[in-house]
Design a protein that fits this description.
- With about 280 residues, the protein is mainly beta.
- The chain has a single domain, classed as Jelly Rolls.
- Helix content is about 5%, strand content about 45%.
- It has a 7-stranded mixed sheet, with no helix packed on it. It has a 7-stranded antiparallel sheet with strand order 2-21-18-23-15-14-13.
- A hairpin with a 2-residue loop joins strand 19 and strand 20.
- The longest helix is centred in the first third of the chain and has 8 residues, at about 15-25.
- The chain is globular and about 55 Å long.
- The relative contact order is 0.17.
- It comes from Anaerocolumna cellulosilytica.
- Its cofactor is Zn(2+).
- InterPro entries: KduI, KduI/IolB_isomerase, KduI_N, RmlC-like_jellyroll, RmlC_Cupin_sf.
Length: about 280
Amino acid sequence: MELRTASSPKDVKHYTTDRLREEFLIQNLFAAGEIKSVYSHIDRIITGAAVPVTPLTLTAGDEIRAEYFLQRREMGVINIGGKGTITIDGTVYELGYKDGIYIGMGSKDIVFASGDQSNPAKFYFNSAPAHKTYPTVLIKPENCVQVELGSLETSNHRVITKYILPGQVESCQLVMGMTSLKPGSVWNTMPCHTHDRRMEVYLYFEMPQDALVFHYMGEPNETRHIVMRNEEAVISPSWSIHSGSGTQAYTFIWGMVGENQDFDDMDGAPMSTIR
């Protein structure tokens, strides 16, 4: 588990490209036969991935000083690879492509496995501190709340699928979902916003090898960008915008943790203020 500290917006405006990438970009998460993760001091989120060729067991490690990974945490998982299973305290859950699961605090034995070693599952996860146990729930995207936004004329026609949110799948603080851009659209989350009550992590995927996304971050009047490629994630502090434009349509998973779970609690940044 890699550790990342928090960064002040006063400092970030002076960062070089390399320093921005070092602090906020998460690369090489999906390694065959491994569980890899990054622990951020920003709201204590853990971002990680498991790619089981043979079964992989999730352990706490020394970084979180716990007897087991979810002793004081909750977790959301979305599979972006081949079919696989997650066994939680003896109960087996099958996850196909884009299926998700919420795993409640107190779940002890968690084992990731793939149905086909030649096409392994790619389990992407976000984990946050928790204060009570909510039920573990298998999540099918077709059963989730979906919202269609934007238009082709503004290059931001997209569908938001909400996996974990109050009233659908209950959690302590984790909110998680997926946004898919329609062909011909490249902009996500534009017009952009911040939300001081929550931080966010994006994972970009369904991108060809030669495609990229310019992910915009920073204060609305002090923007910076990070060039991102397929299956890379980025940490977005609560004071930062989080928007992107790609060379073609793509999909991204978003996960939020923090003060509240109100998806619409955001502070819009008027286009006239962006610079």
